[in-house]
């Protein structure tokens, strides 16, 4: 079994690779087909680093990945997913597999890019190594505002992480009365009750527009929040999910 340190070292060995095809895409294409020679290769870089550092079982729990959404789902299904709130990003560790949404959401379905955490820098920033950033592998500094979340691989000796919890902060306060209708989609719902819930989730650190429209982005945040709180994960804001948004502490 490999380690987080070995994973970061393997990613460092790729820094400076540019263009395509390159040795990362060639290695991946040799196993999965020539169509990958010139494909987007950020997750191929993570895959090849995992294999090179004996971390495939930890980093690739469902096998090789070139598609970032599926890779993030692999971690979520194993309870190793942390949404991209500022508090969570400040708790990131070397070797965590970090996923980005340039649109600024925490939704897995919106992920655009992936890399590996080198270290947390504080203030909502992490240092990463990423393949296929401007078509090269490079060291980057990223802010939580573009981080959808990260997966924590089961590295040797690391054990399973405790569930993600909010950091201490301002008391949650008393929840306003449940609006009387369950917020769900489809069809897309709108109204002041939606906006009230969205604003509360934003106060907790979730990246979500408070536009009063309960669509796919709101459902993604709802599901992630429900997983964090141990609630039934159905993507619907019912009485329990509504109350939990106020009774827990704000991150």
Automatic annotation (TrEMBL):
<dbReference type="InterPro" id="IPR002477">
    <property type="entry name" value="Peptidoglycan-bd-like"/>
</dbReference>
<feature type="region of interest" description="Disordered">
    <location>
        <begin position="157"/>
        <end position="182"/>
    </location>
</feature>
<dbReference type="InterPro" id="IPR038765">
    <property type="entry name" value="Papain-like_cys_pep_sf"/>
</dbReference>
<dbReference type="InterPro" id="IPR036365">
    <property type="entry name" value="PGBD-like_sf"/>
</dbReference>
<feature type="domain" description="Peptidoglycan binding-like">
    <location>
        <begin position="190"/>
        <end position="244"/>
    </location>
</feature>
<protein>
    <submittedName>
        <fullName>CHAP domain-containing protein</fullName>
    </submittedName>
</protein>
<dbReference type="Pfam" id="PF01471">
    <property type="entry name" value="PG_binding_1"/>
</dbReference>
<feature type="domain" description="Peptidase C51">
    <location>
        <begin position="66"/>
        <end position="132"/>
    </location>
</feature>
<dbReference type="InterPro" id="IPR007921">
    <property type="entry name" value="CHAP_dom"/>
</dbReference>
<dbReference type="InterPro" id="IPR036366">
    <property type="entry name" value="PGBDSf"/>
</dbReference>
<dbReference type="Pfam" id="PF05257">
    <property type="entry name" value="CHAP"/>
</dbReference>
């Amino acid at each position: 079994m490999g380690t987080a340190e070995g994973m970061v070292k393997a990613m460092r060995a790729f820094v400076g690779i540019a263009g395509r095809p390159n040795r990362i895409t060639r290695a991946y294409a040799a196993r999965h087909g020539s169509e990958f020679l010139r494909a987007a290769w950020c997750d191929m870089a993570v895959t090849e680093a995992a294999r090179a550092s004996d971390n495939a079982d930890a980093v690739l729990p469902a096998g090789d990945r070139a598609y970032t959404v599926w890779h993030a789902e692999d971690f979520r299904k194993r309870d190793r997913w942390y949404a991209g709130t500022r508090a969570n990003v400040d708790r990131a560790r070397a070797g965590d597999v970090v996923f980005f949404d340039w649109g600024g959401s925490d939704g897995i379905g919106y992920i655009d890019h992936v890399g590996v955490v080198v270290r947390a820098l504080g203030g909502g920033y992490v240092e990463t190594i990423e393949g296929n950033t401007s078509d090269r592998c490079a060291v980057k500094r990223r802010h939580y505002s573009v981080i959808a979340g990260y997966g924590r691989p089961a590295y040797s000796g690391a054990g399973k992480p405790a569930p993600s919890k909010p950091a201490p902060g301002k008391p949650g306060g008393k929840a306003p009365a449940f609006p009387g209708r369950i917020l769900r989609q489809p069809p897309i719902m709108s109204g002041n009750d939606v906006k009230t819930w969205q604003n509360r989730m934003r106060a907790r650190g979730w990246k979500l527009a408070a536009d009063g429209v309960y669509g796919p982005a709101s459902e993604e945040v709802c599901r992630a929040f429900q997983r964090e709180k141990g609630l039934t994960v159905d993507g619907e804001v019912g009485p329990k999910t509504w109350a939990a948004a106020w009774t827990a502490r704000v991150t």
